[in-house]
Amino acid sequence: MVSAAAVTSPSSADPAAPGSKAVASPRWLPGFFVLALIWGSSYLFIKVGIQEVHPLHLTLFRVALGAATLLVILLVTRDRLPRDLRLWAHLFVIGGIGVALPFTLFGYGEQRVDSTLAGLWNATTPLVVLPLAVLVFRTERMTIHRLIGLFIGFGGVLVLLGIWQGVGGAQLTGQLMCFGASCCYGFAIPYQKRFVTGRTQSGVAVASTQLILATAQMAVIAPLFAGAPPAPWTLSGNVIASVLALGALGTGIAFLIMFRNIRLAGASTASMVTYVIPLVATVVGIVVLSERLEWYQPVGGLIVLAGVAVSQGVFSRHRRTRGAATDCVRDEPPSMVASEASACPSDQVGVTSEKPPARKAFTNTA
Length: 366
Known about the structure:
mainly alpha
């Protein structure tokens, strides 16, 4: 379906530049909203899945189905898995911390909080990425707008918690688990940027390897701590459909849609789906599961997203690009670390590189 081989293309136009053909064309919009719907609905699918499946088993099924989906695509496109053992070692770390652990934490968290709240907590991921990228991995520099964005965003976290009411019990534990999942993404995304981004392997090959390794890890951990997984015929139709949607759609096909969005609209525009995902998660949770939000929870989520936008320089970038086509495109492969957490390339989540890498074009065939 999609070949995601990155090749250097010095003559390729900037697809995100104002006035360019890619942005002027509306062809990217359907994929943008489909991706927001798939990833925004993931919290609903998790909520339904954990009714009958242990969170550890749910993660195992999810990554196994996602890996199988991407491996089929590799076969169809005649792509292949990486052969570099050092890269496999890095992807083993990312598969554990950036895929298996956060997926599991969201499962445990949604045993205690609504899916809508989990979706809102996921919006905090870029706020965790930034300080780690600056202080630990040294891949970014702190600037005044990033620092202001951090303060705004973590103010939103306090509002999201409803800190003035006092917090405790299962609600607090569930929220902390969801925030812990975001912290896992926050570590894995700059780790991937430091040790994986920029290699010659296609994004599909890298993502497939991450999911294979995550599956291997969960195949050991899940039976050890949760016993044997349930037989498929013992599960209800809704749960089976949710598991299939999480794996094949949310952890497989959605990745390819993100590639197409980057090709048509550029990485900067495609990454804006991050701001739509919490909204979709909220609407789906309320409409389908009849969940109820306190007034301060969506307000806190909006403040968090505002902080993320400020830290990414979204407002200043739009001001700078009104008169000239200066919007930088970084068409690196989307990070499977992020998944529905932050639908951006690995160097677009929460931070913007000071020096843009060489532009790359993705050869895609529908």
